[in-house]
Design goal:
Elements lengths: L7 E4 L4 E2 L7 E4 L4 E3 L4 E5 L2 E4 L4 E6 L2 H7 L1 E3 L4 E3 L8 E6 L6 E3 L4 E9 L36
Antiparallel strand pairs: 1-6, 2-3, 3-12, 4-11, 5-10, 7-9, 7-12, 8-10
Bound molecules: deoxyuridine-5'-triphosphate and magnesium ion.
The site of deoxyuridine-5'-triphosphate has 10 residues, from β9 and β10.
Organism: Agromyces marinus
Family: Belongs to the dUTPase family.
Pathway: Pyrimidine metabolism; dUMP biosynthesis; dUMP from dCTP (dUTP route): step 2/2
Length: 152
Amino acid sequence: MTDSVDVLITAERIPAYAHPGDAGADLHASESVLLEPGERATVGTGVAIALPDGFVAFVVPRSGLAFRHGLTIVNAPGTVDAGYRGEIKVALLNTDAREAYRVEEGDRIAQLVVMPVSRARFVEVEKLPGSLRGEGGFGSTGFGANHQGAHA
Ligand SMILES: O=c1ccn([C@H]2C[C@H](O)[C@@H](COP(=O)(O)OP(=O)(O)OP(=O)(O)O)O2)c(=O)[nH]1
Ligand SMILES: [Mg+2]
């Protein structure tokens, strides 16, 4: 790892990176919750942080829980603002149509990715500068192996 940033924290369990080089530090559930098929619940982590100005933390799903159990985060990526001092919570959603999923206290339910972030100065203009993409979006380049756009 090249860079690190100090993040002040109060926590029942301090989030930890599983390996050197990992982008996400795992967040643990501070409570047990049963999620029925299709149900969502906001789950506590017992973690509160003070990010330095110019940083953001994203609460993102763990892929193992997603692949194996269909467990995701409704608002992924959840945005933790630098000024937020409350408990970080995870809005879990059980997307599985048949199986309930039980979160036990202490389980690693999500991961926290800390990143530098720019604040935009929104500069209002009459007309935006042109670009190759222009207004094309929402599948404008097609979905097959070949590029189907106007600039192919
Ligand atoms: O997954 C999340 C997302 C957000 N938050 C906390 C930190 C964040 O700083 C605050 C507000 O989040 P956001 O701005 O996404 O929600 P909002 O609906 O816009 O609320 P607000 O009006 O308080 O900004 O809630 C979490 O604990 N977990
Ligand atoms: Mg907000």
